[in-house]
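Dear Dr. L.,

I hope this message finds you well. Following up on our conversation about the binding site, I have prepared a predicted three-dimensional model of the protein together with adenosine-5-diphosphoribose. For your records, I am including the exact sequence and ligand specification that went into the calculation, followed by the structure tokens. Please feel free to forward this to your student if that is useful.
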Amino acid sequence: EECFKVTIAGASGGIGQPLSMLMKMNPFVKELSLFDLQHTPGVAVDLSHIETPCKVKAFMGADQRREALKDANIIIVSAGVPRKPGMTRDDLFNVNAYIIKDLAEAAAEVAPNALIAIITNPVNSVIPVACEVMKKANKFDPRRIFGVTTLDIVRTNTFVAEALKIDPKEVNVPVIGGHAGDTIVPLFSRSKPHVSFSDEQIIAMTKRIQNAGTEVVEAKAGAGSATLSMAYSAARFANALMRGLRGEQNVIECAYVASDYGGASYFATPLLLGKDGIKENLGVGELNDFEKKLVETAIPILIENIKTGVDFVNPK
Ligand code: APR
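The resulting structure of the complex is given below.
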């Protein structure tokens, strides 16, 4: 049984704690490294009492960053500040970009073969930061760095299942583009099972999916953004990465990765996962006219978001 070392950066946070718990419960995880600037020793002892074989270790503070990441098979990053009401994901960039840069520099040094799954927002801009940092260190492998967009898929599946009154586990709708507002493009035309919603329903559901992050921010009224559904989604994505690493066939998940679509050098698409991360980018595929319009709206925003990330690492 091949099992893995997983490091969670930001492990003490609102996402990090439930995500750490889900990883402690995952039979493919043999070692869990918890890294944060605060509280990891307590979180680790607490989790270590759970009756699963996975070993939990705590690392705290910048001085222990390298040790925490060393030789990880998978690094999941939720380190950073969350969005408060009135803030956009882009407002987060100036704080979170530095955190991602430090983590990517350390990963390039001590875990160059790790698969890196980044949750920290704004995902559209911080994935380019991580990739540019890895390029500078000569350690960039586009098959290994992912922006986690799984929550967009999870939400889409849930909302479709509600409308169809079926079990969400039976629904699968690919979501492409980016991970904020108008860059999120659900592809109802490729829903499994097939859906025959009216145009009005498709428009309303697309809007709800694109604004679902804000729906949570507003409901939490100052207490942060999505944490539990995000932790669930990241755990689902990490599990897919591990299934790929174990050689399971036909593991397909969408994520935001280095790509080239309509001038956007990063784009979320369905990916076939394998032993080195991405085995094959399955691409955007066929779109209907409504979806083509959504993509046309998304691309210039993405190009701008990507430029923000690239320019941060390579100032003009
Ligand atoms: N290194 C490691 N951990 C850090 C660092 C750093 N440089 N900076 C902050 N952290 C930790 C914080 O100490 C905190 O425990 O990251 C954690 C973030 O947790 P929360 O503030 O509760 O935020 P959370 O809701 O988990 O969201 C984290 O994910 O979805 C995104 O937009 C969200 O960017 C935000 C991130």
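In brief: The chain is about 40% helix and 20% strand.

With kind regards,
A. P.
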